[in-house]
Amino acid sequence: METAKIVFLLIHIASVLGMLVLLLMQTSKPEKTLPKGFMHAALTALIAGFALIGIDSSLGDEISHGKVGVKFIVLIGIMLLGYKNQNKAKLSNAVWATMLGLTVFNIFIAVTL
Predict the structure, then answer these.
(1) Which DSSP string do the residues of 16-68 spell out, in sequence order?
(2) pTM of the prediction?
(3) Which of 75, 77, 44, 49 is nearest to 64 (CA)?
(4) Contacts of 102 (CB under 8 A, 6+ apart)
(5) Residue 29: CA count within 13 A, CB half-sphere
(6) Which of 27, 34, 73, 109 has the smallest CB count inside 10 Å?
(7) What SS3 class is residue 90?
(8) Cβ distance 44 to 11 under 8 Å?
(9) 23 near 4, Cβ under 8 Å?
(10) Mind listing the pLDDT tens digit for each residue in 42-92?
(11) Closest C-alpha among 8, 39, 9, 10 to residue 22
């Protein structure tokens, strides 16, 4: 079970970092778009996070429900913005900055709390 926990943790970290990198790749572009893999990375992070919570609870590990709840709400907000702007040809700077800020905030929560 510890091996599964490590695997899902690596998948979760890789998908969140993928979200961050895909958003940062749009920084230098004058017209920002939502990269195709962004929503896949966000959904993978969500599923891996659920798996981590299930594994942690089955192992009897301490779970910070507040941290998990805030991370879940932030990720849902990111995904809602992504789904709303997924098929648009151009992503507004405000939406892009909000998604980037929420992604960085999600990483901040994971590392500090």
Answers:
(1) HHHHHHHHHTTTT-SSB---TTHHHHHHHHHHHHHHHHHHHHHHT----HHHH
(2) 0.87
(3) 49
(4) 74, 77, 78, 81
(5) 15
(6) 27
(7) coil
(8) yes
(9) no
(10) 999 999 999 999 998 888 888 888 899 999 999 999 999 999 998 888 988
(11) 39
Q: Does residue 34 surpass a pLDDT of 80?
A: yes
Half-sphere exposure of 45 (CA within 13 A, CB side): 27
Whether the CB-CB separation of 42 and 78 falls below 8 Å is answered with yes
| Paired tokens of 64 | 């910070």
Q: Is 53 within 8 Å of 68 (Cβ atoms)?
A: yes
Alpha-carbon radius of gyration of the chain: 15
Burial of 8 (0-12, 13-18, 19+ CB in 10 A): buried
